[in-house]
Specification:
Layout: E1 2-10, E2 22-23, E3 47-48, E4 51-62, E5 67-78, E6 84-85, H1 92-117, H2 125-151, H3 157-173
Antiparallel strand pairs: 1-4, 2-5, 3-6, 4-5
Helix pairs in contact: 1-2, 1-3
Length: 181
């Protein structure tokens, strides 16, 4: 007899799991109407994108607790209620910068799926998945910060263009790990 155990772990923005989300899709680009949060007048940013990776897994075990199979699901999500923009300061260029934050989240969701695909069934799979989850979140946060730093929060147009091309190429490189709908 096999037992099935399901564990859902919402990473990065777990506080927002009960709020509406938008899943990343190649054919959908964010619009300002997607940003439903209230702008922070004390913040120097023109816009803020709240995005993160949602992750869950299930494990199939024998009655003796031997893992015989596992499955994982990974999604890149945008959180409209936590995302905002200052309408009097925002423009299409800033929206492109914010879209790329969401694209970077999708890139790391694909990297996560790729790494999960290399894991082997074992009794350590829970720990391996949780460790991988923590690692990918740290890498994602560092990468998002690097993006903002190198583009000067979208103000460096040349760097912004380089990043757009780079992320597009990286997404294409990992398209085998995209969710097909």
């Amino acid at each position: 007899m096999l037992n099935r155990l399901f564990i859902a772990s919402f990473l990065f923005l777990c506080n927002y799991q009960d709020q509406p989300v938008k899943s990343w899709k190649a054919d959908y680009k964010l619009i300002w109407a997607d940003f439903k949060g209230k702008p922070n007048p004390n913040h120097s940013a023109v816009a803020v994108t709240a995005s993160g990776i949602t992750f869950g897994f299930s494990i199939t075990e024998t009655n003796t607790n031997k893992v015989v199979d596992f499955n994982a699901e990974v999604y890149a999500h945008f959180y409209p209620e936590q995302s905002w923009y200052a309408p009097n300061r925002a423009n299409a260029h800033v929206l492109g910068h914010e879209q790329l934050h969401f694209n970077i989240t999708e890139l790391f969701a694909r990297k996560f799926r790729q790494r999960i695909s290399k894991l082997k069934k074992s009794n350590n799979i829970r720990r391996e998945l949780k460790t991988l989850h923590n690692t990918i979140n740290k890498e994602l946060a560092q990468f998002q910060n690097k993006y903002d730093t190198e583009t000067d929060f979208s103000r460096n147009f040349e760097a912004q263009l380089k990043w757009e091309k780079y992320i597009e190429a990286e997404l294409k490189e990992l398209e085998d790990f995209a969710i097909i709908e």
